[in-house]
Design brief:
The structure holds two protein chains of two kinds. By secondary structure, chain A is of the alpha/beta class. Chain A has seven helices and ten strands. In chain A, the strands form two sheets. In chain A, strands 6-7-8-3-9-10 form a six-stranded mixed β-sheet, sandwiched between helices. Chain A has a four-stranded antiparallel β-sheet with strand order 2-1-4-5, covered by helices on one side. The N and C termini of chain A lie far apart (44 Å). Chain B is mainly alpha-helical. Chain B has a single domain, classed as MetI-like (MetI-like fold, Orthogonal Bundle), CATH 1.10.3720. In chain B, α3 packs parallel to α6 and α3 crosses α8. Classes of the chains: A alpha/beta, B mainly alpha. At the A-B interface, loops of A face α7 and α8 of B.
């Protein structure tokens, strides 16, 4: 059986035609097996979002290949597997009520129309927004808006969910609660999660596996399994130890690349 | 009654007071002048009633409003279409930029005169200048609006594989609504000014025509009466039509919820 996501020697650079190109991603390769929770961790601005955009077909790859369930995803973005995306900010349409925002995402799927209503109420319930279906996004708090955007990503019943620092704009208390909820949802609805973050403790707490990325041009310099059984606890010493160890190696590498490149 | 309603009520009250104070000022001035030049508010009010009673006011208002509305919608259609094209295609932007600037700088009077010369007394005489003068206003605002579109929302829609048609309807148009609405207000206000100018020297009916007619007769009280009829109707349109549209379009904005 092929992996849910397979990235092969992916390269990508930005820059207008004729100008010198700025390499962003350099030879990135990794696999995410089905139903796993995998994090990509790297410093801010290292190209993590670009990587996610390429994986979901929003941006074309310069070199290399992205396979979703063994099938190439090309720049036109056609791929039979559904991919949900949770962005750093909620990116809701402020002029539509929450349920219409979710419906908007459903119009992009082949889920039959008569099932939309059930899907919408099911996932609104799961993210704890029951009673807020008819509210506009600006009537909700930041945390609730982000929940709504998670409901939107879940409602299309994706096999794969891409998350781009979804909790980085929330306060730590809300973020902790939402991480727990996310793990519950992931556990109940078998799916593959690729989670991008710059927060080591978040990555270690959530993931089965963490890939560490360098600064631009980014490549993966280390991949680590997190063999801690679930459900996990925030105060688990074992998690703490892994976090400390990974952080140490992460900084060794990051400072190394800085001196090399300057 | 909720405090919000009270606040709203007191604001409406102040507006009414301000309108009344204008009438009072006019009345005071009229006390010290010759009625032939500055008639009293009451005598003008009688004329307004009389104009409605004998059917001349409804007829000429109907004529003027039709011209305004036809010209207004034509300019809205052309303006939005051109603005969207300019905002989305670089070549078209560069091509039409200069033309729009030229169109904006041609004095309204020129269009009115040309159109009377070319079309004589046909209704086109009013439509052409209204459309030509107001569509660049709409074009410029919509063009700016398209350029200011939040691309992150378009990207969101694309990651969810939402169709192009849906992206236009649910993402682009709502984002352009503030620009479209403000240009609608502006171009409507310009439309009726042009309609009256054209009526003054090119047509034989409409509110503008009545103003020029009584100017030639030097009948100041009727000039006042027609001006007032016109102002009241335009305030009515502005107040009820436009604020209703914007209330509907922006009910998602917390600050407009009263």
């Amino acid at each position: 059986m092929s992996a849910a996501i397979e990235v092969k020697e992916l390269c990508k650079s930005f820059g207008k035609l004729g100008e010198e190109k700025l390499p962003v991603l350099e030879n990135i390769s990794f696999k995410v097996e089905r139903n796993r929770f995998v994090s990509l961790l790297g410093p801010s601005g290292c190209g993590k979002s670009t990587l996610l955009n390429t994986i979901c077909g929003l941006e074309p790859e310069d070199k290399g290949e992205v396979l979703i369930n063994g099938q190439p995803i090309n720049s036109s973005g056609r791929n039979p597997s559904r991919i949900g995306y949770v962005f750093q900010t909620p990116r809701l349409l402020d002029w539509l009520v929450i349920e219409k925002n979710i419906e908007f995402a459903l119009t992009g799927t082949d889920i039959p129309k008569e099932k939309w209503k059930d899907a919408i109420s099911k996932y609104i319930e799961i993210v704890g927004l029951r009673g807020f279906e008819k509210k506009y996004p600006l009537q909700l708090s930041g945390g609730m808006q982000q929940r709504a955007s998670i409901a939107r990503a879940l409602a299309i019943e994706p096999e794969i969910i891409l998350m781009d620092e979804p909790f980085s704009h929330l306060d730590e208390i809300t973020a902790r609660a939402m991480r727990k909820e996310l793990l519950d949802i992931w556990d109940q609805n078998k799916m593959t999660v690729l989670f991008v973050t710059h927060d080591m403790s978040e990555a270690v707490f959530l993931s089965d596996q963490v890939h560490l990325m360098t600064r631009k041009p980014a490549h993966i310099f280390m991949s680590e399994e997190i063999p801690v059984p679930r459900p996990r606890d925030y105060n688990d010493d074992q998690l703490f130890k892994i976090e400390k160890d990974l952080l140490k190696r992460f900084y060794e590498n990051i400072s190394g690349t800085v001196t090399n490149s300057r | 009654m909720s405090p919000i309603h009270q606040k709203l009520r007191s604001r409406v009250f102040i507006e009414i007071v301000s309108a009344i104070s204008l009438v009072v000022a006019w009345w005071l001035v009229s006390l010290f002048s010759i009625p032939r030049y500055i008639p009293s508010p009451l005598s003008v009010f009688y004329l307004v009633i009389a104009n409605f009673a004998n059917g001349s006011a409804p007829f000429h208002i109907y004529k003027t409003l039709t011209r305004v509305i036809v010209g207004f919608f034509a300019s809205l259609g052309i303006g939005i279409a051109l603005g969207v094209l300019m905002g989305s295609k670089r070549v078209l932007e560069d091509y039409f930029k200069m033309l729009t600037v030229i169109a904006l700088t041609i004095p309204s009077l020129c269009w009115a005169i040309f159109s009377v010369m070319w079309f004589g007394v046909a209704e086109l005489v009013a439509y052409i200048p209204i459309t030509m003068i107001t569509f660049p206003i709409v074009t410029v605002r919509v063009w700016e609006g398209v350029k200011a579109v939040d691309k992150s929302l378009v990207d969101m829609a694309r990651t969810f594989r939402v169709s192009r048609l849906h992206i236009i309807r649910k993402v682009y148009i709502p984002m352009l609504m503030p620009h479209i609405l403000s240009s609608m207000r502006h171009s409507f206000a310009t439309s009726w000014k042009i309609a009256t100018i054209v009526e003054v020297f090119g047509l034989s009916n409409g509110v503008g025509y009545m103003l020029s007619y009584y100017y030639r007769e030097l009948y100041v009280a009727q000039l006042f009466a027609w001006a007032i009829i016109f102002v009241v109707i335009m305030i009515f349109v502005e107040r009820f039509a436009f604020s209703e549209i914007s209330k509907r379009a922006f009910k998602w904005r917390p600050e407009t919820r009263l």
